[in-house]
Amino acid sequence: MADPLEIELKLEVAFEDRERLNALPLLADGSGKTDHLFSTYFDTPDLHLLDAGYSLRVRRKGKGRIQTVKADSEAAAGLFVRPEWERSIDGDLPVLDETSGPLTQLLGEDAIARLAPLFVTEVRRTARAVAQGSSRIELAVDRGEIRAGDRRAPLCEVELELEEGPAKALFDLAREIDAEVPLRLGVRSKSERGYDLASGRVEKSVKAETVRLEPDFDAQAAFQAIARACMRQFRLNEALLLETGDKEPLHQARVGLRRLRSAFSLHKRLLATDGRVPRLKEELRWLAAGLGEVRNVDVLIPRIEEKDVCRRLVEERARMLEQVRAALMSPRARLLMIDLAEWLALGDWRVRPADPDLLHQPAAFFAGDVLDLHRKRLKRRGRKLAELDDEHRHRVRIEAKKLRYASEFFGGLYVDRKAGRRRKAFLDALEELQDHLGDLNDHATGAAVLARLGLEAKLSELDRREQARLLDRAEDAYETLIDVKRFWR
User: Fold this and answer.
1) Which residues pair with residue 135 across a beta bridge?
2) pLDDT value at 55 more than 50
3) Which of 111, 203, 234, 436 suits 341 as a labelling partner, its CA being 20 to 30 A distant?
């Protein structure tokens, strides 16, 4: 029997906008039902459930108790489609048996005995049914907080759950709400936020996470998982950037967008006939451009010795950062993430593919062809690397970056011990090559950045000996990379 599936679109609302949310015509007419929900999440002291990819909660609603087991989404970026097991229970403690999903198989008797409350969520949920075209949607607004010991975090979320009809209606309704109250694509569940709060972990930035690709994935499923993981990296760092303005979340938000743009490029054969692709790529390029300008200044500041020029650069960074903040907070940026989530789920590339056989080709076969192609390009462009000019070395650097992203994206498809060793050696050589080419590129572009800002300063230029040393190291890394056996073959 197939697992029961929950399909919902999760959207975040700034806590200060909660009153505007209350005033929405969809909610202000009094037809919605409001419940006070108190949910307790359980795990073992060593977080056995979290490591296994599941959450377990008991929700108190009135006098009733509902136990829910959820499996993590494959790569959550707004649209959650995941197995869920729900049942009524009599008390406040979990009841694990054959109706509780796979937990009795995952947890031994000792682990089950050690389950204990870890954190709670307390929310007022206002929900009502909404007709959107031929679809029926449950619109739920959650306002409240998460508590773990003496730690607290406010939450305000909108969840759109499809009850019947085409899923496109979820996104249409999201856009209608965003016209009244700013929405951001949600990428973290309440349980994930609760675990973070319970641990006391405060992220300063979020690096790319491993993309979970299952052996039975086809090319379509792999692309969806990869793209959603990139969107998640961007969204997590976007929130940190808006809060702090620091250089690390800015860099990682930019990396998330850069990885997403590379994912489009690596999968272009799947997307070739989809008419929405050019606009989405252009919007991603627009969003990344502002982040890139600030990043260039961040890289340049430590190389400047003149205090007055350094002060001017810091001022320029502050000005650029405000422009970036304005762009990120604009409807254009917010709706781009919603558009991407919709397109990944419902785009023509999926529902009307030009080549269904390619779309459903085993992901490992598709990945092997992509990796072969970009390794071949890098091998050709990187010949006589030390003799290339700045422009051609930059092209080598871009190709190395694409190959690295592809190796990281598809790495989960090659998990045996031999492939793992080869992949590590391959990525080590790629990383070393990128580091040396990156150093050369930073020195080559520093003067251009200063000129663009109308500033004059002496840069710590590379002398001939140091440049020759960097080029030798880059060439050695290139030769090592070409000699390393392909982990995908």
Assistant:
1) 132
2) yes
3) 203
